[in-house]
């Protein structure tokens, strides 16, 4: 019995550590997504061809985000992440073809996911930093 209890504790501690690592991956992704996304918005307005590379970077950044919400079994978070990745992928193609108006419309759809997910899954900690809800 004692052995089982110890094993249980080790498992529980392991999963807490695991959750913390996941959260760090999500936070790392968000800290990158923030500036790259606002830069992309400006580049689309300025018809700057380097926008395609930013859009591709954002697609990649949403991969750990999707994984995080999948591991938490939060379906809405998974859907927001998938939509964001799909729209950024489209934006990458459109900007490469010089279709700036369509890219701008897609950008609005992509950024609607930011607020959507933040409203349900993000909260401000006492020290002013962001954390997962
Ligand atoms: C599927 C959910 C989800 C989506 C979609 C999402 N975010 Fe987040 N975001 C979070 C969560 C949860 C946090 C709080 C944890 C954290 O700070 O990393 C966060 C935090 C942030 C932060 C603060 C990072 C920090 O800790 O300093 C920024 C900036 C940010 N998101 C930008 C964006 C932008 C821009 C988009 C849209 C292109 C976006 N996010 C889309 C879930 C999401």
Record keyword descriptors for this entry.
binds heme C; 5% strand; elongated; 133 residues
Descriptive account of the structure:
- There is one protein chain.
- By secondary structure, this protein is mainly α.
- It has a single domain (2-125), classed as Up-down Bundle (Four Helix Bundle (Hemerythrin (Met), subunit A)), CATH 1.20.120.
- The chain contains 4 helices and 2 strands.
- The protein has helices at residues 2-45, 51-71, 75-96, 100-121, and strands spanning 122-124, 130-132.
- The model has no long low-confidence stretch (mean pLDDT 91).
- The structure holds heme C.
- The site of heme C has 24 residues, from helix 1, helix 2, helix 3, helix 4 and strand 2.
- Unique bound compounds: heme C
The strand order across the widest sheet is 1-2
Order of helices and strands: HHHHEE
Poorly predicted sequence stretches spanning 5 or more consecutive residues: none
Proportion in β-strands: under 5%
* Total helical elements: 4
Q: Give the termini separation.
A: 36 Å
Morphology? elongated
How helix-rich are the residues, as a percent range?
over 70%
Question: What is the average of the pLDDT values?
Answer: 91
User: How many strands, what sense, and barrel or not for the largest sheet?
Assistant: 2 strands, antiparallel
Structural class by helix and strand composition: mainly alpha
Q: Could you tell me the radius of gyration in angstroms?
A: 18 Å
Supply the number of structural domains: 1
CATH class assignment: Mainly Alpha
